Amino acid sequence: MAERSTAVVAASAALLLLLLLSAPATADVAAAAANRYPPLASGLSFDFYKKTCPKAESIVRDFLASAVKQNVGLAAALIRLHFHDCFVQGCDASILLDSTPTEKSEQEAGPNLTLRPAAFKAINDLRARLDRACGGTVVSCADIVALAARDSVGIAGGPAYQVPLGRRDSLSPASQTAVFDALPAPTSNVTTLLRFLARINLDATDLVTLSGGHTVGIAHCSSFENRLFPTKDGTLNQWFARQLGLTCPAKGAVNTTVNDIRTPNTFDNKYYVDLLNREGLFTSDQDLFTDARTKPLVTKFAVDQQAFFEQFVYSYVKMGQIQVLTGSSKGQIRANCSARNPATAAGNDGDLLPWSVVETAVETGLVL
Ligand code: HEM
Questions:
Q1: What is the DSSP string of 242-278?
Q2: What structural domains and CATH numbers belong to the chain?
Q3: Residue 216 in contact with residue 265, Cβ under 8 Å?
Q4: Biggest CA pair distance of the chain
Q5: What CA–CA distance (Å, rounded) separates 176 from 183?
Q6: CB of 184 closer than 6 A to ligand 1?
């Protein structure tokens, strides 16, 4: 009997010890979950369309699951579209606006010329599907771009995550100069890249992590021929340089190659393995492994895909909140993502009445 009670006491003590030891671990997990996302910008929330268009997210996801099956490059194209939208004038869908007689589209500026038409078409197709399902124009074009980018990451094999929603669309595009001032060239080194990112409150961690978007997609010779001509960039792995030379035999070639030679269509950490092997495509990629400020994180991501995925979610959601327009007084929700809403007789800046009613109801918490 005495033996049995000693055993019970010992077992209870062991259980207590286990509980005590596991308490900090549980707290860590909760803290990690809390740190998974950056602070949300004022006016954005994860359930913004819960009442006004509850099916919005599943519509985007289902559409892309089948569209990416038809065209695997669409995922890369949409991931890049969100980046080019957010870096220039904030995530306001300004990249989608077509030229008008008085305003030139951002699409016509050099860095945007290689955005794929399929990405713009997918956004317009989603606009139509969402309008049918929501019973009107409820979801903004900027939110459609953010959701499409998120689902593209997931469909390509990357992490699943939630998107803060509630962005509104710009009334006009950024100027051509503003596009060049916001999007760094692929010939940039880390010092230049950090200078560009600092203007929009992104840091070296964000730079290394977001560059990981180059784990999918393609690039034209013009984007990396500076590394081949007139002389070969000494940081290029010899074998890789020869392969690039086959694709781009002379300056001015118009061919394309994949961004990540290991797994070109899969969203994984192999981009960082490429950099370790001096097989990064752009100067802006390879310099991340040359520069002492960014090299440690490149090395870490090359061996720890989970760490890359977690930081990618954080940095991409952070990027997705750059200078967002929120609240009914800023921007509008475009009925046609490629054009500003026509101004109404009431002179309400092109925001038609039914949308204002829906949005006002959302903001005041009314159930429609
Ligand atoms: C840090 C600075 C960056 C530079 C200098 C840069 C530059 C480029 C260039 C030059 C291309 C190829 C264009 C072409 O020749 O067709 C490209 C493609 C791409 N970029 Fe970036 N990029 C940067 C950051 C990002 C970020 C933050 C993302 C997203 C997280 C991203 C995602 C992509 C994707 C997915 C492609 C392939 C697009 C496709 O296949 O259509 N890039 N980038």
A1: HHHHHH--STT---EEES-SSSTTS-SSHHHHHHHTT
A2: 43-217+259-320 (1.10.520.10)
A3: yes
A4: 95
A5: 11
A6: yes
Q: Is the pLDDT of residue 118 over 60?
A: yes
Closest CA to ligand 1's atom 7:
186
Q: What are phi and psi of 257, to 5 degrees?
A: -140, 170
Enumerate the β-bridge partners of residue 339: 336
Is 88 labelled a binding residue? yes
Who has greater pLDDT, 20 or 292? 292
The size of the chain, in residues, is 368
**Residues 284-291: what's their mean pLDDT?**
98
Compute the distance from residue 220 Cα to the ligand 1 centre, in Å: 11
- Contacts of residue 363, defined as CB under 8 A and 6 or more positions apart, other chains included, come to 327, 328
**Residue 125 among known ligand-binding residues:** no
CA–CA separation, 52 vs 165, rounded Å? Answer: 12
Tell me the H-state helices in 106-166: 117-134, 141-155
With a cut of 60, say whether residue 28 has pLDDT above it. no
Single pTM value for the model: 0.88
The candidate with the shortest Cα–Cα distance to 275, out of 220, 204, 208, is 208
- The helix or strand, by DSSP H or E, that contains position 58, with its residue range, turns out to be helix 56-70
Task: Quote the tokens at residue 296.
Answer: 């440690």
Consecutive H or E run containing 76? helix 73-87
Closest CA to 126 of 334, 347, 341, 350: 334
- Categorize the per-residue pLDDT at 366 as very low, low, confident or very high, splitting at 50, 70 and 90: very low
Read off the pLDDT of residues 182-223 as tens digits, 9 standing for 90 and up. 999 999 999 999 999 999 999 999 999 999 999 999 999 999
